[in-house]
Every structure is written in structure tokens, then in C-alpha cells.
Specification:
Layout: E1 2-4, E2 8-10, E3 17-24, H1 29-39, E4 44-45, E5 50-58, E6 61-75, E7 82-98, E8 117-121, E9 124-126, H2 127-137
Parallel strand pairs: 1-3, 7-8
Antiparallel strand pairs: 2-9, 3-5, 4-6, 5-6, 6-7
């Protein structure tokens, strides 16, 4: 059952089993608002933000499996040049419906091997916080324009991916520099 969905889904309208949702910032104002919220954190989008979600209903639990896709402008950590970063990030999230604020049936221990669960109250599942979290989880730890980026010269600041500089490599002064003079027996 594929449908043009909103970011908040009433659980009473879900069928038992799989429910599919295709979301796009081009057609949903709520997803467009999420893009604007993320943009305020300094990200520049180069494409629409899309999400394809399969929500499996097994009352009182729900299981989300899907992808979030986008393209943004990033800055390389080595050479400081801008480059496009496009990704399709798969995710899986377990949700548990709490009937009331006082009921909390699941208390994970530090050594629990069960997947993390997101608890929700009320009669709606809100995709916005889940998709926002998945956006940030999909970001690379180091943003590199290419895997073999040479960075910039530490003396003159030239981008070594575009040109070689004439700087001589200074002698590295490290705490281990004295070891270089020792001979192996």
C-alpha cells in the first residue's frame, strides 16, 4: 500500500503488517520544513530529501525499515574545497507504543542485546524526528572530496590536488627525532 504520506501517521489507519510510505520534500511541505530546519544548521541541499519507508505494524510494536536519500554541499576536511555529497542511507528502527505515560514495559540493561527502541505515546507515529536523526547518522565522520585528497601545503596553503608548490618539506621535529641517529645492532 504505497501512498503520498504526511510526516505524522495515525496508527488507527495502519493495516496489520507492512505499510509503505514514499516521502519527498518536493511534494510534502512537512519534509520541506525538515530540510529548512537542517539547513539552519549550516547544510546546503543540492537535491530533494526523499525517504522510502516500510512500517510494519505488530501491535503494540512497530518496525521501520527504509532509506533516506539526499545530496548536500560539503567541505573537504583536507583541502577545504566544496564538493557534492550524495547518499542513500538505509535504516531500521524499532518503535514501541506506550498506552500511558506511567507504563514503560521495557527497561534495557547496559548489556542488553535487543535493538534500541523508540517509545512513542498517543495515536500517531511522527516520522520527522526519526528522519532528522537518520540524516545526521548518515553523515560521514570525515568529509573528503576524494579518498586520495592531498590536502593543502602547511607552509604556503596551496591546494596540492591542483598544483605542486615549491616549498621544501621542513625537518619534522618530533619527540622521536633523536631515535633516527641510533643504529640497530
Amino acid at each position: 500500500m504505497s501512498r503520498d504520506a504526511k510526516m505524522k501517521v495515525p496508527i488507527t489507519q495502519l493495516q496489520e503488517g507492512e505499510n509503505k510510505f514514499d516521502l519527498s520534500s518536493q511534494s510534502q511541505s512537512s519534509l520541506c520544513n525538515l530540510m529548512q530546519k537542517i539547513a539552519k544548521a549550516g547544510y546546503v541541499f543540492r537535491s530533494d530529501l526523499t525517504a522510502h519507508i516500510t512500517l510494519t505494524k505488530l501491535e503494540p510494536d512497530y518496525y521501520l525499515k527504509g532509506t533516506v536519500a539526499y545530496s548536500i554541499e560539503m567541505t573537504c576536511d583536507r583541502c577545504a574545497e566544496s564538493f557534492p555529497f550524495a547518499t542513500t542511507h538505509p535504516f531500521e528502527v524499532a518503535l514501541a507504543h506506550l498506552k500511558s505515560k506511567t507504563s514503560h514495559p521495557y527497561e534495557p540493561s547496559d548489556k542488553s542485546k535487543e535493538p534500541d527502541r523508540i517509545f512513542f505515546e498517543g495515536n500517531e507515529i511522527d516520522f520527522e524526528p526519526i528522519l532528522e536523526e537518520q540524516f545526521y547518522l548518515s553523515m560521514p565522520y570525515h568529509s573528503l572530496c576524494k579518498m586520495d585528497c592531498k590536502g593543502v601545503c602547511q607552509q604556503c596553503g596551496k591546494n596540492l590536488n591542483r598544483e605542486q608548490c615549491g616549498c621544501k618539506n621542513p625537518a619534522q621535529s618530533t619527540p622521536f627525532a633523536q631515535i633516527n641517529g641510533f643504529k640497530a645492532r
